[in-house]
Amino acid sequence: MAKYLDPRVDLTFMKVFGEHKHLVISLLNALLPLADDERVVSIEYWPAEKVPSRPLKEKDSIVDVCCRDNKKREFIVEMQMTWTDSFKNRVLLNASKAYVAQSEVGEDYESLQPVYALNFVNSTMNIDSEGYYHHYQLVHHANSKEVIPGLQLVFVELPKFKAQTLADKKMQVLWLRFLTEINAKTQEAPAELLENPDVREALKIVEVAAYTPAEMRAYDKFWDNVSVVKTLENARRRSEEKQKETELKFKNTVKRMKAKGFSTEEMIEITGLTADEIERLLLP
């Protein structure tokens, strides 16, 4: 019985999709909103110096695979182990940089090709939506059929994905099951995944037996680092919530004092706030 590593980790994700072109092509065709005549046929990986750099705090929680196809379309594939709202801006920034970089080789604007950013998110990013698949593009405000196709951003919330039927053999379902169901606790790979040649090959790549002791240490270190990032992010979030709660209490107190006729000087003396802080809290 084979034992598996989690395919979401940088080491395994890169081995599957960063070293096997036909597998990342299969992933792109399955997850991106491409018409039949737009499907990816062949790709080349970006050189290392072109891959977007990340802040130190993100290096242990984000994995990316970048490539260009035979039509010169650019693709950025990311696995994000943690989530903050600022990541949307970073995704847009990196996709925009890739789009702009096409013009640096002296080509005219008509030759610019779309950039697709495919982002797998290992946490909930949109609490107001039950769907796991989110596609963003530039659309006319009054007529959604009018689209500027330069940037295509796709976010897939892995925790929300649930296959409607385990017998569904669509490639999107199979790849998402591979990313959500396979991990160190997997006792046996599902038959539906083993039946598909691409996913079966990916399963073989993430078998524990294929990794050296040094790689296993790197694998364990990745999870340790993800835990640290999540701990710090949770602490930051709790701090912000506490700050908002404290500010709301001050706001309510100041408004009650104002309603009872307290002067600004009296409110400063009682609350310890500055005149500017009190004025801000009294705003509607």
Characterization of the model:
With 284 residues, the chain is an alpha/beta fold. The chain contains nine helices and six strands; from the N terminus they run H-H-E-E-E-H-E-E-E-H-H-H-H-H-H. The chain has a six-stranded mixed beta sheet, with helices on both faces. Strand 2 and strand 3 form a beta hairpin. The N and C termini lie far apart (64 Å). The mean pLDDT is 87.
Question: What value does the average pLDDT take?
Answer: 87
Number of separate strands? 6
Shape: globular
Strand order of the largest sheet: 1-2-3-4-6-5
| Biggest beta sheet summary | 6 strands, mixed
Helix content: 40-55%
N-to-C terminal Cα separation, in Å? 64 Å
Poorly predicted spans: none
Structural class: alpha/beta
Strand portion, in percent?
Answer: 15-25%
Spell the H/E element sequence: HHEEEHEEEHHHHHH
Number of helices: 9
Radius of gyration: 24 Å
Question: What would you say about this model in short?
Answer:
The chain has 284 residues and is an alpha/beta fold.
Draw up the topology in text.
Elements: H1 10-17, H2 21-31, E1 43-45, E2 62-69, E3 74-80, H3 86-101, E4 115-121, E5 133-139, E6 147-157, H4 171-181, H5 191-195, H6 197-205, H7 213-259, H8 264-271, H9 275-281
Parallel strand pairs: 3-4, 4-6
Antiparallel strand pairs: 1-2, 2-3, 5-6
